[in-house]
Amino acid sequence: MIENFYPVIPAGGSGTRLWPLSRKGRPKFLFPLGEAERSLLQATARRLLPLADLDRLLVVTGAAHADAVREQLPDLPRANLLAEPSPRDSGPAIALAAAVAHSRDPDAITGSFAADHVVADVPAFHAAIRAAAEVAGSGLLVTIGVTPTRPETGYGYIKTGEPLGIGAALAVDRFVEKPDRETARSYLASGDHLWNAGMFIWRADALLAEVRRQLPDLYAGVTAIAAAYAGGDGTRIHEQLWPTLPRVSIDVGIVEGAAARGRVGCVPGDVGWTDIGDWDTLGSVLPADDTGTVTLDVDDLLNLDSHGCIVAGSGRTVVLLGVRDLVVFDGADVVFVCPRDRAQDVGSVVRALRDAGRDELL
Amino acid sequence: MIENFYPVIPAGGSGTRLWPLSRKGRPKFLFPLGEAERSLLQATARRLLPLADLDRLLVVTGAAHADAVREQLPDLPRANLLAEPSPRDSGPAIALAAAVAHSRDPDAITGSFAADHVVADVPAFHAAIRAAAEVAGSGLLVTIGVTPTRPETGYGYIKTGEPLGIGAALAVDRFVEKPDRETARSYLASGDHLWNAGMFIWRADALLAEVRRQLPDLYAGVTAIAAAYAGGDGTRIHEQLWPTLPRVSIDVGIVEGAAARGRVGCVPGDVGWTDIGDWDTLGSVLPADDTGTVTLDVDDLLNLDSHGCIVAGSGRTVVLLGVRDLVVFDGADVVFVCPRDRAQDVGSVVRALRDAGRDELL
Questions:
Q1: pLDDT averaged over chain B?
Q2: Domain boundary residue among B252, B275, B298?
Q3: For residue A331, what is the nearest residue in chain B, using CA coordinates?
Q4: Are residues A208 and A332 part of one domain?
Q5: Dist. CA A110–CA A141, nearest whole Å
Q6: How many angstroms away from the CA of A289 is the closest CA of chain B?
Q7: In chain B, positions 211-240, which contact chain A (CB-CB < 8 Å)?
Q8: Residue of chain A minimizing CA distance to B321
Q9: Which of A126, A258, B236, B333 is the most buried (most CB within 10 A)?
Q10: Which of A180-184, B9-13, B136-140 has the lowest mean pLDDT?
Q11: Confidence of residue B314 (pLDDT cuts 50, 70, 90)
């Protein structure tokens, strides 16, 4: 347990790059892609519970997914599930959770842990959060920076600075965008660039102070909604105020601005983190057979001289002959084939379908 | 019209290399792969009818496919459809058709034209058959040899010899097996190797004389069955005698032995012939869109940066992103993916399924 710790799980985002597995109505965090048949959401909650009691765990999700979340986390207190009336990106979601925690406990430390990430080394993850919580006690916003293991172009990076003098914590110089391959190689070689895993720990009051300073409208909105929840009229006020809040990510809206003022610290952590952002990453996280083939809900695969494929099925027999490193998705309504090294471009399919008015496939 | 000409269409063979389109119960000759929505069988019959009246066209097929053949060729006289009680390869089928034709007309010229081939240049095809029929009048067995246009390794070849002095006809030195790539190149360069298209024209009595000489049991069987058909008891005798006949191809069982005795002639013909033996060939015969993509029963294909694929569907949406030269088959029971350049190996899938007892997929 970590004293006063209120972990927050933002469970949002449909993950267009995992289309057609992940759909608007069935986002990837609901899928059993976590260990031992658990969904990513369930695995995320389970990972956090040794650090906080269940009645301090807060989940923020879209109204459309609230029932599915309740089903997957049946013991979560009803008041701890915050259902967003409409998508406003991560900024309002995480700020509201901080405001709710703060309304319950003025010394609350909250943290944000995406519902659709994988963490392989749970003890290291717990140690990193404990260290981050200690740093957060000083009033800094703290992020856990993951030591890169490859020149990944699909993640953002954190450029770290001087040691802060609290454990292994470092100052954050700045957050940097997803790099190209060459830049990613230089980051990997530099030693002072860590992966931005979007894992945050902070005192709720410290975050809310930054929100008030940078986005006063957002501050006014989330504190009013939190007060209404405390007073029993949360849902109505939430629905009323939510559409008026700025649509902004927590990174761009709050954390980057705080970093520019030297208000963000970083705790490095080798926690075995993966953002299952696309098919290729999914294939690297799930167990492969001795042909390097990964299957997902495929009962009947005949693999003849094929290697490195990711096959997701829906009951039909799938036969692969002589193919390499393909994604093959066999769904009830759509069959999708693409090379793993084009996995980053799957969002373009979703855009093309949206442009074509094919909402039934999104 | 060609006098006394009884064209024979052997409609057999499930074509394992076109699996899963072609199945045991639904062989490829029934599919609308011919021009203008006609099945290959219908296109084959239509191509022959300018040379012979419909009441001289003979079709030999497996009992399991007889109803489908009748449906596709509703005007074919019932007596002209010979339904094989069990598969005995092409030798018994073609010999029986010759015997039936001979029982109706002692001067019958028969010819064998596979139900699942494509012929693009019909006037040249007609001219070649007329020339072959003239040569056949001399008592030789005559084959039409197709001038090779590429070093094809999927076809057998005919090594031609001296001119016969009848039109452009040449002696046949020998039939040669499917070559490897290098040998195929040398055949193409040689000028005296033609593709063996399995197109035969001969006097029925000349063929039957060769059958009697080489396979007397087969001769006795097919003449007895033909006599029974003429006498009205064909079906019973056919069912009784058929299982006793040797299982042999017309090439190996009869024509090669005749060639060794100098009894086979060859008429070269540039007839635009293709044996749609595999997916790659099928893709080269069907019309492609401007991305080189060929579709078959696909209503809804989203093609993003993909080229040269062959897509066969069954109603679902198919989405291809960034793939090249793949076969993608989306069936009701099976999804199959393989590169076009592995098309020759599709038979191995059928063997693997058979070995696994997966008869429902064959």
A1: 94
A2: B275
A3: B316
A4: no
A5: 10
A6: 19
A7: none
A8: A338
A9: A258
A10: B9-13
A11: confident
